[in-house]
Amino acid sequence: MIKAIIFDFDGLILDTETHEYEVLSELYAEHNCELPLDVWGKVVGTVSDFHPFTYLEEQAKKKLNRDEFTERQKQLFTERIEQEAARPGVVDYLNAAKLLGIKIGLASSSNYDWVSSHLKRLNLLDRFECIKTSDHVAEVKPNPALYLEAAKCLGVKPEECIAFEDSANGALAAKRAGMKCVIVPNEVTKNLEFCEVEHRLQSMAEMELKELISFLEQ
Question: Which is the catalytic residue, given 10, 15, 126, 135?
Fold first, then answer.
C-alpha cells in the first residue's frame, strides 16, 4: 500500500535543467562549440566533477575568462528561472496527496538553500513534511541515501513510497532504495537511458494521482 510520495526537485518540480542546458548551449555557441546532450545528461540529477567551463575550453582549444563565463551563466540562468512556474500537474499531485492522506517528501541532490528558496517562491515549501538534500547525506544520487533518509523521516518503509523523478541518476537512486519510481522527464532528460521503472509520464497532468496509485498497486 502506498503511504508516501517523494519528489525530486530540479527538473521535476521546477524545470531548472532545461534552462540551465539552454543557457550553457548559448554560451558555447558564442565560441562555435557545442555541449552534447549525451555528455551533459550524465551529470543531471547528481553531483559531479564535470565543469562546463573546463569542457568549453577543451572544445575551443584556447584559454577563456572563467569569471566572465560564470557570471554570465549565473545572470542568464537566474533571469529565466525566476519566471518559471512549477511543472504541469505538480500542484495537483500535492493537493491530491493531502486529500488522500498520503505523506509528502522531497529528496534532492541540490543543497537545502537552493531548494527551499525556490519552493518559497512557488509557495510550496510548507507542502512537504520532509525535505532531504545534499546537506543531509554523504553521497547524493544515484546513491539511494537521499530516498532512504526521506522515507525514514516520513516514518514509512521504502516499498510504501512512490518516487517521482526526471533524471536517470535519480531514478536509479529510487530503485536502489527499494521504491516504486515514476519518471516525468523534461526536454533535457527525455532521451536519456533510464533503468527499469514502474511508469513514465510526459507530465503529471497526464494522469491523476489517485489513478496512478491504483495502477501501481495492481
Answer: 10
